[in-house]
Write a structure and sequence with these properties.
Elements lengths: L6 E2 L9 E2 L7 E5 L2 E2 L24 E7 L13 E7 L8 E7 L2 E10 L3 E10 L1 H7 L7 E14 L2 E17 L15 E20 L2 E19 L7 E21 L2 E20 L2 E2 L5 E2 L2 E5 L4 E15 L2 E12 L4 E13 L4 E12 L3 H4 L11 E15 L2 E17 L8 E20 L2 E15 L7 E2 L6 E12 L2 E10 L3 E2 L2 E7 L2 E6 L5 E2 L3 E13 L4 E9 L7 E8 L5 E7 L4 E9 L1
Parallel strand pairs: 3-6
Antiparallel strand pairs: 1-2, 3-4, 5-6, 7-8, 7-38, 8-9, 9-10, 10-11, 11-12, 12-13, 13-14, 14-15, 15-18, 15-19, 16-17, 19-20, 20-21, 21-22, 22-23, 23-24, 24-25, 25-26, 26-27, 26-28, 28-29, 29-34, 30-33, 31-32, 34-35, 35-38, 36-37
């Protein structure tokens, strides 16, 4: 997904999606029509770590990834939609897939259940902690996940599917725990952290008539995390206990009025239960500003988000398709109402050339973790974005497609804050704009490949009259190349090359002395840029076929030429006022060896 046009990587240590200059928390993720908070292990809001997908990719039948201009069905996010659909189990045979590599061990099973049902299930367990224990190394993170789907055909008009997943991430570490705000990074030497989440739901698809069907989804999703940081003698100096559960009912009806006209409408109701408890002692920023001790206990009443949408697609003649829609949203906690118009069009100039355009307004309500920080944050309103997109698509050959797309996003009412208080404001604004070029070759003649290049700019402004700056996820140049080839006799070779401009960062301009202690002085915010990020990953697969099963061995080499990609810098000032700059690097060359057995 990180190799698609308009998508940038946050580094080898993160699988989060940076889409067209937006932050990862602006992306909507769905699994079989169930909204999930996070699809990646060890990924929290505001953090860039996390590289392992919670959803086993082998379970996916289809992925619909929309980087902008998405239709009225989707809401409450400003950047993109990542809509995943799971496979159904095999209707005739039972299959077992066992996979093991340095990262973890997994088992997947699927097959028929009863007369009209199928099931597919996957469970995985990380091996990092077990390996480090055997090697007598400092403890590494551990993770667990389980994902499953049961599908049952009641009759020719009714299908039920039950989908669910669960994950748990755990970290326990003794030694220096890096703190962003403290001038003494070594004073907290103990950390425990548990991240957990679950989602399950029922989808009922009902054929109303030969021209209409209904999809009803009843689901629950929950996520939370617990953290303790401190010292050997007092391990809970800093802590958090955060939980958010949601209970959702959706109904969508699609009706084809004529062969060239259809209507889709729906109602979504979501009830939200939140808990946000945090505490921390007084601290000092790297600039010497005092941050007082704080304690938050945010236990709001049950709130709800209600939305209604309608959209229609009309083809007045065979080469033109028009889609228009609108979406109404209501958030009971802030008593805010919003309306989002959406419009798109596609014109096929020839059988191989088409022009596309899209326009839409998008709102994103303040998150619970933002509202919880201070009582004044209950006055926050939704951030908004307006998308303008035009593009052209050309089929160069039956197996090669080229696309060119230009986009512009205007942002307003963006939620912003500062380092010394927890009060947030809707005073931010900004824009993101760019041009994307991509080539995609389907798998023919033993070869598949994609190439994409994006030139873009993403800027923000915290309030009228303040300086404009490059947003932290601005990447002017992004180049992604992927290729795969079958070499024969069960051998396969895959390669991926990624290049992007370095992240903006705030350089240090000097030092200042306060009460006998030296502190760094920052330069202009995000006025400098890290070195460019680039790396080449290569993978070899060899499949062995036996009578009743197959075995695949693979070697995955990350960062083949061992590029020292810098993710950020940390600064420390000694008692003489001398600054030490320490870069934090991404992974160097990293081999991953694995085996997959299929029965």
């Amino acid at each position: 997904m990180q190799s698609l046009p308009g998508v940038a990587t946050a580094g080898g240590k993160s699988a989060q999606l940076i889409v067209r200059g937006g932050s990862p928390d602006e992306n909507l993720t769905l699994l079989d029509n169930i909204e999930i908070y996070n699809p990646i292990h060890f990924a929290r809001t505001g953090e860039s770590m996390g590289i392992i997908s919670i959803i086993n990719p082998s379970l996916l039948k289809e992925v619909n990834f929309m980087t902008g201009g998405f239709p009225a069905k989707y809401g409450d996010k400003m950047s993109s939609v990542f809509d995943m659909t799971m496979v159904d189990g095999n209707k005739e045979l039972h299959n077992i897939d066992v996979n093991a590599n340095v990262a973890g061990f997994g088992l997947m099973v699927d097959g028929p259940v009863m007369d009209n049902g199928t099931m597919v299930f996957s469970a995985r367990r990380g091996l990092f902690d077990m390996l480090t224990s055997i090697l007598n190394r400092p403890a590494a993170p551990s993770y667990y996940d389980a994902v499953g789907k049961f599908t049952y055909d009641l009759n020719a008009k009714n299908r039920l599917s039950l989908v669910g997943f669960y994950y748990l991430d755990q970290i326990e570490r003794e030694g220096t725990v890096r703190m962003k705000s403290s001038t003494d990074t070594g004073k907290y030497n103990y950390l425990t952290r548990d991240d957990y989440g679950t989602a399950f739901g029922v989808n009922w698809r009902y054929l109303l008539s030969p021209k209409a069907y209904s999809l009803t989804t009843l689901s629950f999703s929950g996520n939370g995390w617990n953290t303790l940081r401190g010292t050997e003698t007092q391990r809970d100096l800093i802590g958090e206990d955060i939980l958010e559960n949601s209970y959702t009912l959706k109904n969508e009806i699609t009706y084809q009025i004529k062969s060239n006209l259809d209507i889709k409408s729906g109602v979504h109701v979501r009830f939200i239960e939140s808990e946000h408890i945090t505490w921390k002692p007084a601290d000092t920023t790297r600039l010497g500003q005092i941050i007082p001790a704080s304690s938050i206990s945010y236990l709001p009443d049950l709130s709800n988000k209600t939305s209604v949408f309608m959209q229609s697609t009309w083809s007045p003649w065979v080469r033109l398709s028009l889609t228009a829609g609108g979406r109404y949203d209501y958030f009971s906690f802030t008593k805010e109402e919003t309306f989002s118009p959406r419009l798109s069009a596609s014109y096929h100039l020839t059988d191989r050339t088409s022009f596309n355009m899209a326009y839409g307004k998008y709102y994103q309500t303040p998150a619970s973790y933002q509202i919880a920080l201070d009582p004044l944050n209950q006055q926050l309103r939704s951030s908004s974005a307006i998308h303008y997109i035009i593009g052209v698509e050309q089929l160069l050959r039956d197996d090669i497609r080229a696309t060119l797309e230009v986009y512009h996003k205007d942002l307003s009412n963006v939620i912003v804050g500062n380092d010394t208080t927890d009060i947030l404001y809707n005073t931010g604004s900004g824009y993101a704009r760019g041009i994307e070029l991509s080539l995609q070759k389907k798998f023919t003649d033993g070869f598949v490949g994609t190439a994409s290049y994006t030139f873009s700019e993403s800027k923000r402004q915290d309030a009228d009259g303040l300086a404009e700056y490059y947003f932290e996820f601005d990447r002017p140049h992004i180049l992604n190349l992927i290729a795969g080839i079958e070499l024969g006799e069960g051998w396969q070779l895959g390669a991926k090359f990624q290049y992007s401009s370095g992240n903006p960062f705030t350089p240090v301009a000097g030092v200042t002395e306060k009460n006998g202690t030296f502190y760094v002085v920052d330069g202009d915010y995000n006025s400098d840029r890290l070195p460019a990020y680039h790396k080449l990953d290569v993978r070899f697969d060899k499949k062995f076929v036996f009578n009743a099963w197959t075995l695949t061995a693979y070697l995955d080499l990350w960062n083949v030429y061992n590029r020292e990609n810098i993710l950020d810098y940390s600064y420390k000032v000694d008692s003489n006022g001398l600054i030490t700059e320490t870069p934090r690097y991404d992974f160097g060359i990293l081999p991953i060896i694995g085996l997959t057995a299929q029965f």
